[in-house]
TrEMBL record:
InterPro entries noted in UniProt: Cadherin-like_dom, Cadherin-like_sf, Cadherin_CS, Cadherin_N, Protocadherin/Cadherin-CA
Gene3D superfamilies documented for this protein: Cadherins (2.60.40.60)
UniProt-listed PROSITE patterns: CADHERIN_1 (PS00232), CADHERIN_2 (PS50268)
Gene name per UniProt: PCDHA11
Membrane disposition: Single-pass type I membrane protein
Upper lineage: Eukaryota, Metazoa, Chordata, Craniata, Vertebrata
A GO term from the CC aspect: plasma membrane
Region (Disordered): 705-751
Residues making up the signal peptide according to the UniProt record: 1-29
Name used for this protein in its record: Protocadherin alpha 11
Residues of the Cadherin domain: 34-133, 134-242, 243-349, 350-454, 455-564, 569-625
Gene Ontology BP terms: homophilic cell adhesion via plasma membrane adhesion molecules
Gene Ontology terms for molecular function: calcium ion binding
Length: 751
């Protein structure tokens, strides 16, 4: 009991000392810790957050997490204090077997921005495994004729620990015949054996029972024992002997069953049955007795199972040769089989972190995923090179041995490619090489980078006037290349005023369908063209939009009855002066026919009529006239200047003259014989308009009433000289016949 307490105390001291050896170091971007195996739950490993330069307050927001390939939840991190601690039982032998180096590789991943840290936790070996003998007892057949200093090999023990904890020492119980010869560190091939100190006497001591104790180098040490039963044989004093005590063989892994390994040969100097030898397998280490067979007659060793370099690199085969004497004699040898690596393991690809989906506005050099590769083979067979699908905007960047980052290399455009299927190929350096592929789908998330677009910038719409209120007149449609809410388009009017009214009082647009409605009947006489813009906006943040112009022409219908306008001319009662009563506009006929009646005061009263044709032309437009008309107009203009001068001096005289002239004109018209017609050609009378005679045309165009060239005068005066006969003349667009008998002559006035 005291020994058990002492052992427990020593174990705790060892754990404490190993905990004190826990260190942190930064090198090549990696943090290194160490922890003893079999440490209790909650055992402190290291302040990982502090050592990685992370603040405790940002562990949770940045999604601090730890990943360990194949090692589950052995280690965990307390997000409150950033301490890495032991979460479950760690068995070094279970993790790494007898490998001298044993580490747990952790990947610490934080987001915003995405970062990865590599942490290596070395698992320190403790002396938790005692030496183990493969047999509970060993039997030795030793002839009594054996000479002193003869050696008899024993099956040693094995220890699952490493280093000092696996260095075994042996002790033999006290006896007078045998001593123990143990292997030394300098020569590991030396076998554990019994050495005969003196001659055996079978008659005196036919059997000898010994206790063999194996102790490891741990503190405290752990031990194991095995019983040795020595049977002393008589007479047959020569045992079989092999040509060599040790044999070394190399085999490729994965060789076929029944593959030849080696042929052993042992000879016995005895004669007869005492010299006949049979072979047997004593043991195959480690744990591989069924992997080899031995022909008991010819000593051939062959492969009986699957040899895997990744599982075991060496096998130690103990062979015994026994003769057929009575009692039989035995000889021993060791066959060392070295397994050579073959490229029989394809690389393994693991995607440890993947940030999906990827926004199309993600900046180049952003880390998208973390990829690790491994190959169980060794040497060139285990060297792995990774490659990525060509012609994609991504690339692989090596960050650490067998670790890669999938990085965005160039800009993304979801409208061009919405999804990428990436294939990562891992190829080893074997001959022939083996490869493994891993596919990942990278979805590109939409960003509102496309404004709604109309098919054309402007549309022309024709609508009849007097439409019913709320009628559908047109539908606008815009397309947005984005997706989801970024492509959801709504429509609205670009408000403005139309005259004194708002645009929205005339038309409206449906926000979802883009249908344009006329809210009230349109009147061509009031509004011939309605021009406005419709805006299309998406639902992105921030929203994007564009405008389209609609030109709505209101078509005229016969919805207005004709209206009678007063006649726009008057004639002075006594002077015969013709003047306008109102402003002339474009609604008046371009040709006017005036019938003037002249009546005297005689008994009975006599009358005469004259037809005046007026053509309305725009202001500044030259009237159409013949050369004779132009010559007469020039002379008349000079006469009018003189008349105006005398009119100022003697207005009364002029008034009397006008009355006399009117009476003479009437008498001449009544007494003149008919010639070729009242509308025949002749020198036209000069007629000019006053300021009242001009009118406004649409868009401030002004018209003049004038019979010839020259500026307009103050009064409209009519003179009636006699006209010489002439051929038919076309006046004002109408043709007059000189032979017609009309009571009055036609005076043409060109406007």
């Amino acid at each position: 009991m005291f020994r058990c307490q002492r052992r427990g105390l020593g174990t705790r001291r060892l754990l404490l000392s190993l905990l004190l050896l826990t260190v942190w170091e930064a090198g090549s971007g990696q943090v290194h810790y160490s922890v003893p195996e079999e440490a209790k739950h909650g055992t402190f490993v290291g302040r990982i957050a502090q050592d990685l330069g992370l603040e405790l307050t940002e562990l949770v927001p940045r999604l601090f997490r730890v990943a360990s390939k194949g090692h589950g939840d052995l280690l965990e991190v307390n997000l409150q204090n950033g301490i890495l601690f032991v979460n479950s039982r760690i068995d070094r032998e279970e993790l790494c077997g007898r490998s001298l180096e044993c580490s747990i590789h952790l990947e610490v991943i934080v987001d915003r921005p995405l970062q990865v840290f590599h942490v290596e936790v070395e698992v320190k070996d403790i002396n938790d495994n005692p030496p183990v003998f493969s047999l509970r007892e060993q039997k030795l057949l030793i002839s009594e004729s054996k000479q002193p200093d003869s050696h008899f090999p024993l099956e040693g023990a094995s220890d699952a620990d490493i280093g000092e904890n696996a260095l075994l020492t042996y002790r033999l119980s006290q006896n007078e015949y045998f001593s123990l010869e143990s292997p030394t560190h300098s020569k590991q091939t030396k076998r554990l054996s019994l050495t005969l100190k003196k001659y055996l006497d079978r008659e005196k001591t036919p059997e000898i029972n010994l206790l063999l104790t194996a102790a490891d180098g741990g503190k405290p040490e752990l031990t194991s024992t095995v019983q040795l039963f020595v049977q002393v044989l008589d007479i047959n004093d020569n045992d079989p002997e092999f040509e060599q005590s040790e044999y070394k063989v190399r085999l490729m892994e994965n060789v076929a069953k029944e593959t030849f390994v080696i042929k052993l040969n042992a000879t016995d100097r005895d004669e007869g049955v005492n010299g006949e030898v049979t072979y047997s397998l004593m043991s195959v280490k480690p744990n591989g007795k069924l992997l080899f067979t031995l022909d008991e007659n010819n000593g051939e060793v062959r492969v009986n199972g699957s040899l895997d370099y990744e599982e075991n690199k060496f096998y130690e085969i103990e062979v015994q040769a026994i003769d057929k004497g009575n009692p039989p004699m035995a000889g021993h040898c060791t066959v060392w089989v070295e397994i050579l690596d073959a490229n029989d393991n394809a690389p393994e690809v693991t995607v440890t972190s993947l940030s999906l989906p990827v926004r199309e506005d993600t900046q180049p050099s952003t880390v998208i995923a973390l990829i690790s590769v491994s190959d169980r083979d060794s040497g060139a067979n285990g060297q792995v090179i990774c490659s990525l699908t060509p012609n994609v905007p991504f690339k692989l960047v090596s960050t650490f041995k067998n670790y890669y980052s999938l990085v965005l290399e160039s800009a993304l455009d979801r409208e061009s490619v919405a999804n990428y299927v990436l294939v990562v190929t891992a190829r080893d350096g074997g001959s022939p090489s083996l490869s493994t592929t891993a596919s990942m789908s990278v979805e590109v998330a939409d960003v509102n980078d496309n404004a709604p677009a109309f098919a054309q910038p402007e549309y022309t719409v024709f609508v009849k006037e007097n439409n019913p209120p709320g009628c559908h007149i047109f539908t606008v449609s815009a397309r947005d290349a984005d997706a989801q809410e970024n492509a959801l388009v709504s429509y609205s009017l670009v408000e403005r005023r139309v005259g004194e009214r708002a645009l929205s009082s005339y038309v409206s647009v449906h926000a979802e369908s883009g249908k344009v409605y006329a809210l009230q009947p349109l009147d061509h006489e009031e509004l011939e063209l309605l021009q406005f813009q419709v805006s299309a906006r998406d639902a992105g943040v921030p929203p994007l939009g564009s405008n389209v112009t609609l030109q709505v022409f209101v078509l005229d219908e016969n919805d207005n009855a004709p209206a009678l306008l007063p006649r726009p001319f008057r004639v002075a009662l006594y002077t015969g002066e013709i003047s306008t009563t109102r402003t002339l506009d474009e609604a008046d006929s371009a040709r006017q026919r005036l019938l003037v009646l002249v009546k005297d005061h005689g008994e009975p009263a006599l009358t005469a009529t004259a037809t005046v044709l007026l053509s309305l032309v725009e202001s500044g437009q030259a009237p159409k006239a013949s050369s004779r008309v132009l010559a007469g107009a020039a002379g008349a203009e000079a006469a009018l200047v003189d008349v105006n001068v005398y009119l100022i001096v003697a207005i009364c005289a002029v008034s009397s003259l006008l009355v006399l002239t009117l009476l003479l004109y009437t008498a001449l018209r009544c007494s003149a014989p008919p010639t070729e017609g009242a509308c025949g050609p002749g020198k036209p009378t000069l007629v000019c308009s006053s300021a009242v005679g001009s009118w406004s045309y649409s868009q401030q165009r002004r018209q003049r009433v004038c019979s010839g060239e020259g500026p307009p005068k103050t009064d409209l005066m009519a003179f009636s000289p006699s006209l010489p006969p002439g051929p038919d003349t076309e006046v004002g667009g109408e043709r007059q016949d000189a032979g017609s008998n009309h009571p009055g002559q036609v005076r043409s006035i060109v406007l």
